[in-house]
Amino acid sequence: NAGVTQTPKFQVLKTGQSMTLQCAQDMNHNSMYWYRQDPGMGLRLIYYSASEGTTDKGEVPNGYNVSRLNKREFSLRLESAAPSQTSVYFCASRDMNRDRGYEQYFGPGTRLTVT
Amino acid sequence: AQRVTQPEKLLSVFKGAPVELKCNYSYSGSPELFWYVQYSRQRLQLLLRHISRESIKGFTADLNKGETSFHLKKPFAQEEDSAMYYCALSGLPNSGGYQKVTFGTGTKLQVIP
User: Fold this and answer.
1) Which of A23, A73, A77, B64 gets the most CB atoms within 10 Å of its CB?
2) If contacts are CB pairs under 8 Å, which of residues 77-96 in chain A contact chain B?
């Protein structure tokens, strides 16, 4: 049981390049999330997906797109990277079982630098 | 709109001293509140949640709906408590905002030996 996995762990992009961050979970959770973590800003929600086939914008969606490929996978795409997108990106899935308290499980993060 | 405020970026305490990490929230419905912890170079993990009213690693938190607060407390700080702490909020299931989880800006707790 790997939990939430993310690839890659590190990435350096030039301004204007595109890339896709991959996330997968093996816990059969319906809900999945993408956050970015910046110093002094905490975690900010980019997009989330309540179930397979649905996605919704979070607080900071501009410059990003997402795909909920199936129940396991939720990818984040940067079409034209900008230096302002330099950040650590975390994927999470959420257990909506009341007995387990609606906990989110996080991946290890992807450290992205845009030059 | 839902919002979480953690007013302190850094909290430094001596080992053995009491700890209180502040969290205030804004939410129009009934909230679910959580504390997550991130140790150095590790992923975020759940510390505790208000729905279960549990104590984890000596930490407790009480939801005060009147003051819209969910402060995290521990009577005696230990060096291994040094970490980044995040307060998070969502709505209750079957409410409009239950899928969206909003985090505060985090408080770095530094326990001085």
Assistant:
1) A23
2) 90, 92, 94, 96
pLDDT at residue A1 tops 80: no
Q: Closest partner residue to B101 among A104, A108, A109, by Cβ? A: A104
Q: Which residues of B are less than 8 Å from A42 in CB distance?
A: 6, 86, 103-106
Residues B26-34 have a mean pLDDT of 88
Mind giving me the DSSP string for chain A?
Answer: ---EEEE-SEEEE-TT--EEEEEEESS--SEEEEEEEETTTEEEEEEEESSTT--EE-S--TTEEEEE-SSSBEEEEESS--GGG-EEEEEEEE---GGGTT-EEE---EEEEE-
CA separation for the pair A27, A34 (Å, rounded)? 17
Looking at residue A38, its pLDDT comes to 93
DSSP label of B102: E
Task: With beta carbons less than 8 A apart as the criterion, state whether A112 and A86 touch.
Answer: yes
Rounded CA separation B99/B92 (Å):
9
* A18 touching B (Cβ < 8 Å): no
Comparison of pLDDT for A96 and B85, the residue scoring more = B85
Distance CA B51, CA B32 (A): 7
CB spacing of B43 vs A90 below 8 angstroms: yes
